[in-house]
Each structure stands twice: as structure tokens, then as C-alpha cells.
Amino acid sequence: MAEHARERTKLLLDAMANFGRGLDLEAVLNQISAVAAQLVGARYVALGVLGDDGRIARLLTVGLSAAQVGAIGPYPTGRGILGELIRRQVPLRLHDLSAHPASVGFPANHPPMRSFLGVPLRVHGTAFGNLYLTQKVDGGDFTDEDERLLEALAAGASVAIENAHLYEESRLREQSARANDEISRRVLAGHSQEDLHALIADRALHVADADLAVIARPEPESKRLVVRSASGAEAKRLVGVMLPPGSTFSGAAFEPDGSSVAPDAMADERAQLSFDLRREIGALLAFPLGEPSSTRGVLAIGRYGGRVPFAPLVVEALQGFAAQAAVALELAEHRADVERFAVQRDRGRIARDLHDLAIQRLYATGLSLLAAGRDLDDDHARRIGRAVDEIDETIALIRTTVHRLQPEGAGSRQAGLRSRVYAEIDAATSRLGYAPRLRFDGPVDAAVPPNIADHVVAVLREGLSNVARHAHARTVSVRLVALDDVVLTVADDGVGIPTDVPLSGLRNLARRAADLGGALSVQPAGANGTRLEWRVPLSQS
Q: Closest Cα to residue 456, out of 484, 487, 419?
């Protein structure tokens, strides 16, 4: 017995020394759980970390395999015996935990547990969490000595937890400060907003130790959120994707209390990402870039499912980072406005000079040539006439250039192709019962001329209508690319093209493509579904 007591005392002292060297909070918590199990001979240990609401926000376990944890399901948040320790914050030792009045039983697939010992963990006098130990390995009950040893362990652990908190806070502040400094230097150096978006997403990913960081900004005309930049393993697939209305992102952008923290996005409908990622996102944060009344977009950071949620320290650090990033984006926008104004001013000056000087001189030269031609023979007069005609054509070209150089009036702009596509997506949503996924690639508004844009809208409307009427699909994705060709793709996961459906609509779409030198392709999409691709070259427009 004396030897056993000395071994346990040595184990406790060694653990205290190791705790003092630990700076990673996650590693410290796992070490506390493992030492507690060994110290009192418990088969199962759980360390519950309390959230701001006083309920269990995280649960670390010892003695259960990953398969057992998955079979049991969601971890408890504070009912029953676990809640008793949260409410009273004093050690609790039981011969049979199921006999306690507060017991609510076990969920399915839970291993049998009888003897119980619980000890609170406090940091600076504030409840941090609780240690729960069950099933004494020797089959007996936990003893008074076990309780005292665990209380001593909890006292030493509180110091280690506080040290890890301080280190984590210092590390996050340093990383955030470095990131903000780099962003500020990029702004002062005149980098583009696209460069700033990429930098902000990349630095947020590293500060949060996350798997995905996304910046989504509203389209100027439609106010729909579109991914402008992303960082992470699957970042390239996300740029240009339109986010669904009514999501966590929209809330973060346009609602008064915009910040959103979702411990598990898979269980939160508003937080789910429609990105077709290879792995589901679990913990998710979304912060507005600016005030809700003048937001410049949303910064969202996620971890894959199965990873621990974001700690409050990380959430706080990212809130400050998002606020600083919003200031940087505002400065970059002002700089871009100044540069745009300077360009417009130069364009206006060039237009005035062309109109007042070049055109007038050419016009006067043409008149002089006409006057001189009256005194020449017919052959030379014809040559002078052709020269005057060329001067007239040059004047017409310059006038066209002058018109293009002048800024358009606010009321003269027509709806761009993006806005028209958004309108078709919105109209189809009510018929389909869900929002199609949408992605743009390339300068859609600038590159696609009006005549082709009209065809694109008509093809999209017919494609979505076919899906709604015949496909019985659960998802539809739309992609519009404007590079060397204009390519519109509508893909669904439905039943394919029924054999008894008339194909006159598809023939009309093929005719539209052929008239513009392009082609229509309709192919199966995977095991089921249909992929419609309408392609026409821009060079022939």
C-alpha cells in the first residue's frame, strides 16, 4: 500500500512538472485526462469544457474508441449527473451513478458505467470545466484518497490551463498583428483589391488553424454574395460561386448582429456550405467586413468535420482581424475610386481634345481639299474626293472613340448579363423548390456582347425549365464561362431525358448555337442526370 501511494504521488508530481512545460491547450487537456485515468485507476475519463452559456461545449474522452464515440452520438451538454457537477461545482463521488436522483440514464451503444468521481476544474476562480471518471478498474469504488489526488491534479491543471491560455492569446495577437501589418503595407503599396482578398483569406486561414477561408462580397447590381477569394486545400474550386440567400453568410453581411459562430455547420441548415467540398465543414465562423449598413462582404473560416470547434480566443482574435481587414478594404476601395476618377478625368480631357482640336482640324482640312479640288481636272478631283471621304470616315471613328471615352450616365446603363442570370436563377428557384448552384468565370459582363447575352439568357431559361419539368433532380448547378468562348453549362442529378418528351426545345437551343458558329451538347451526368453545354465563340460576335 505504501509503495502504491508513493507511485501515485510520484505520478502526480511528474504530471505537475509536465503540465508546466505544456503550452498547447489541446495537448494539456488531453494530458490531464490521461493522467487522471492513470492516477486513480479509472477505465473511462471525460473532460468537459464549459462554454459561455455554462453548458458543455467540448468533451474530451479517454477509454472510448472513435467507433464507440461515433456510435453513441452527440456528446452530452450538461444534463443528469454531469449537470449536477456543473451546477454545484464541488467534488462528487458515487457508488452507483445510475442510483443518483439526477441520473437520466445512458444513450444507446453506451458502455456500462457504475462507480463515479467528478471534480471541477477552475481557472482564476472561474469554472472552466469538469473531470468525470467512471468504472474503477479494480471493480471497487473511488476512495477518499482518489478524490484528494484528483483535487490536487485539478489545482495544478488550472495553472497549466491558464498558462496555455496566455500563450495562445499571445500567439494569436502576434499572428493577427503581423497579418494586419502586411495587409496595411499592401494597401499603401497600391495592391489591387483582388490581391488584398487573397491575402486576407490566406492570413485568416493560418491565424485560425482552419481548413478553409472564404471572402464573399455582394454583386454591385444584384447584392447576391459571390466568393471573391478563398484559401485552403479546395480554394480554386470556390472562386466565383454564388452563395445561397438566407444563409449564415447573408446574415453576417446584412443583419445587425452579423457575426455567426456554428460549432457544427453540418447540423445547422443556415450554416451549411453549398460548395460540393470533398469533406464536410464542421466548425464555421462568419464575420462581416464592415458595419452591416455598409458591409463590404463576409469573411468565413471553417474546419473540416471531426476537428475541435474554434476556441473563444480564436473567435475573438478573428473578430478583430475581420474589423482591421474591413478598414483595409475600405482604404483600398477609396484608392481605387481615386484612381478611377483620375482615369475618367483623363479620358474626359482626351475626349474634349479629340473633339475640339483633332475633329475640327480634320474638318477644316477636308473643306480646304474640297475647295482646291474645284480647280483641278477630273482625275485629280476624284482623288481629292476619295481623300475627303477618308477624312470623313476618320472623323466618324474619332467621334465613336469620343463617345466611348465619355462616362455613361447613371440612367443609361442596361442590366448586365450577371444580373439577368441571377434573375433567371431566382425565377427557377420557386419552380425547383431549391436554389441552383451558380458560378461565373471570366469577365461575363464586359466580354459577352448584347446579342449573345440575349441567347445565353434564353438558353438558361429553357435549360432550367427542362430540369423543373422533367428531371426530378435534387440539385442543379449552373456555370457561365466567358473566355475565348461563351460556355453555359446546366447540370442536374435527375433521371435523365425521358424518351417520351419532345425535343423541340433542345433543337431550338442547338439552332441558336449554330447561328452563332457554336454547338450544343447534351450528355449524361454520372450514373444519372443530364449535362447541357451550350458553347459559342466570342471571336465571331
A: 487
Cβ atoms within 10 Å, residue 501: 12
In this structure, the answer to whether residues 174 and 227 fall within a common structural domain is yes
Distance CA(353)–CA(394), nearest Å, equals 15
Put the strands of the sheet holding 298-304 in their side by side order. 225-232, 212-218, 298-304, 281-288, 260-262
> In this structure, are residues 120 and 91 in contact, taking their beta carbons and an 8 Å threshold?
yes
CA distance linking residue 35 with residue 25, whole number of Å: 15
CA distance 110 to 283: 25
Q: Give yes or no: residues 244 and 116 share one domain.
A: no
Rounded CA-CA distance 390/217 in Å is 49
CB 100, CB 94: distance < 8 Å: yes
Alpha-carbon span 335 to 366, nearest angstrom: 45
Condensed to tens digits (0 to 9), the pLDDT of residues 431-466 reads 888 888 888 888 888 888 888 998 999 899 888 988
Using the 3D structure, point to which of 376, 405, 434 is the last residue of a domain: 405
User: Alpha-carbon distance 240 to 257, whole Å?
Assistant: 26
CB-based burial of residue 199 (10 Å sphere; 0-12 exposed, 13-18 middle, 19+ buried)? buried
pLDDT at 412: 40
Pull the grid cell for residue 385: 474626293
- Of the CA atoms within 13 Å of residue 229, those in its CB half-sphere come to 19
Q: Which of 124-138, 156-170, 245-259, 396-410 has the lowest mean pLDDT?
A: 245-259
Instruction: Count the domains in the chain.
Output: 4
- 528 by Cβ neighbours in 10 Å (0-12 / 13-18 / 19+) ranks as middle
Helices (runs of H) and strands (runs of E) counted in the chain: 14, 15
CA dihedral 437, 305, 289, 248 (to 10 degrees): 60
User: DSSP secondary-structure letter at 52?
Assistant: T
Q: Following DSSP, what letter does each residue of 162-191 receive, concatenated? A: HHHHHHHHHHHHHHHHHHHHHHHHHHHTT-
> End-to-end CA distance of the chain, in Å?
93
Q: The C-alpha cell of 416 is what? A: 448586365
Torsion region of 517: left, alpha or beta (phi above 0 gives left; psi -120 to 50 gives alpha): left
- Same domain (yes/no): 92, 10: yes
In this prediction the pTM is 0.57
Tell me which residue range forms the domain holding 344.
336-405
Indicate whether 219 pLDDT > 80. no
Cβ–Cβ < 8 Å for 190, 52: no
